[in-house]
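Example 3.2
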Amino acid sequence: MRQASISDSNQDANMPCGQRALNSGSFGGISRSSHVAMVLAVPMILLGIAGSDLASVLEYERSGIIAGEWWRAITSHFVHLDSFHLTGNLIGMLAWGYLFDERESVRAVVLKLLTYALAICAGVLVFNEQIQWILGASGLIHALIAGSALRLAIETRRPLGIVVLSVLLLKVVAEQQLDLASWMESIAEYPIVSVAHVYGVAAGLIFELARRFRFSGRTAFRSIRGWRVH
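Structure, written as tokens:
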């Protein structure tokens, strides 16, 4: 067993989060993202047990949101049509938690989830007037994977982030251009709102790019201020 030195600790502290995750082996263990995924799975499972009566109050309903039932924009991501729908989204959520280790604060994670949830529903509300109702976490999962994959690709330049992001983008394009969603609907036996996946990927990428731009701008400002002081 190798004993960590003070220099090792300082080096790890200065590493990007994705690099620390790769070095520590957290991609194969219980990472912070895994904890987040498991926490998110709890209300999804409980609401699934509660049944369709509660889901009808929490799902995205266009007329309800326009009438002021704003909570639907958030709660709609945690309710599902049936056990098959729920199981598929739980697998996707846990896969995200297993593959990526975000190492973010609770506040940052909550802010990110709320941003993703609201952005997806806002996209549907503004650009897809024909869609009257949606429920399920697939759009949110697409956002989480897109943002984490981009972050990993930028910070570590390892193949995992690039491969996952490429596959995700190809999937979304295939759903829109090659009618992949219809084939998926024939298997699932329920309608799939594939535009929610598009908005999810867009939200994940834009949020991550905006976060990095904000961080880079703050770092540059501090460097300029430090240069002026010296």
